[in-house]
Amino acid sequence: MENVIQLKIKRQDSPEAKPYWEEFAIPYKENLNIISLLQYIQQNPVNAKGETVTPVVYESNCLEEVCGACSMVINGIARQACSALVDQLQQPITLEPLDKFKIVRDLMVDRTALFEALTRVKAWVEIDGTYDLGPGPKDFSLNQEIRYNFSRCMSCGCCAQSCPNYTLLGSFLGPHAVGQAYLFNLHPVGKNLASDRYEALMNKGGIMECGNSQNCVRACPKSIPLTSSLAELKRKVTWHAVKSIFVK
Amino acid sequence: MSQERNISGFVLRKLHSLAGIIPLGLFLAFHLLANGAVLLSPLHYLVVIQTMMNLPGLVFLEIFIIFLPLLLHALMGMYIVVTGRNNPHKYGYFRNWMFFFQRLSGVIIFIFLIWHLFSIKFGGLDAPSMIYALQGQISSPFGMILYIATMLSVSFHFCNGLWGFAINWGILSGMRAQKYFGYICIVLFVILAFFWLSVMFGFVA
Predict the structure, then answer these.
(1) Strands A4-11, A102-105: parallel, antiparallel or unpaired by DSSP?
(2) pLDDT in the model for residue B2
(3) Which of A22, A183, B8, B120 is packed most tightly, with the most Cβ within 10 A?
(4) Is residue B53 part of a domain?
(5) Are residues A65 and A132 in the same domain?
(6) CA B199, CA B186: separation in Å to the nearest integer?
(7) Under an 8 A CB cutoff, do B6 and A203 touch?
């Protein structure tokens, strides 16, 4: 028990295949994270029964919790594998893919829906033009500080995975997209697209699909105050909706 | 990536949130107050019910203040229940449990209301026989359980709904404000549940 790490992984050979659980026993070392266990399996693809299997497929990139690629469900909770330390986890450690997204293989999922949601709320600053626009307007540090919180979002999908109203077949954009709409509406140039963002949040899958379970703010590895942005934008979108009756 | 404008979902959810407080929350308060007369004496209750049954424009009030908002709130609520994927067993946070209980209490009230409406409201009863009918329902073991569950559900659904309403309309956006209003709503729930249960037991006393 002391010198072996017990690992249970929910595997799936292809997007259409049936998922199955496979157990692995990995020699214990101090200070391992989940990624190092998966790297060990890559080198020694042998399960707990001693059978040689295909290595477990997973995604990872930065290994310092800033890219969001290695998000998976670890002991029932969505988080990054790189910052999940084995010494702090109860064994057997279970690994599952984020099941709110299309599964590609094993722990690898297709997070395209997260990025499509960002394009729908126009989560960018529009500076394209036919001539040089010159330097942008100055911003106050108070505003910058609020924006900084939201700018740390890495579209990892933990908020969406924990959200009861975000589903694979449903239309909800997800808490991250609302947070990003809030971020770019605070930007001195980004706010030029504010009413487009309100429109997107009024549309199908918009902000009212949020049911205030407030899991997102707890699941967010970057502690982004998503629930505040949701409530703020619920008010602003409502005002926008009322206003659009009279001015359109 | 432009999308066709489809705001029906937004409008329906907004109306669902509004209807829960205005007029349904107001109706709930009125219903509690009127039924509370039974705690004074059965005669008081009879007088209140008789007066209400003779209100001018009662049908108009019932349709526009109660039935239509109730129908919208109930049907939209059921749709929200069915399309959600509850997960408090995995994410066992306080607010997530409240989210789950909001849906559970909604379903209990939905089932209760079908029974309540067809047996009492549309039962073709006059005021005195209403008391006997209610007594009969509440004193049966099944009825007692369903009534207690509903009194608690109604109190919870309204108080927690008040919290949700404050967020859905952007009245409370700060985390601290939301947290403390949550506490206020718990106190409200205890008070409301106490009154509803007293009125309920007032019918069998």
Answers:
(1) unpaired
(2) 61
(3) A183
(4) yes
(5) no
(6) 20
(7) yes
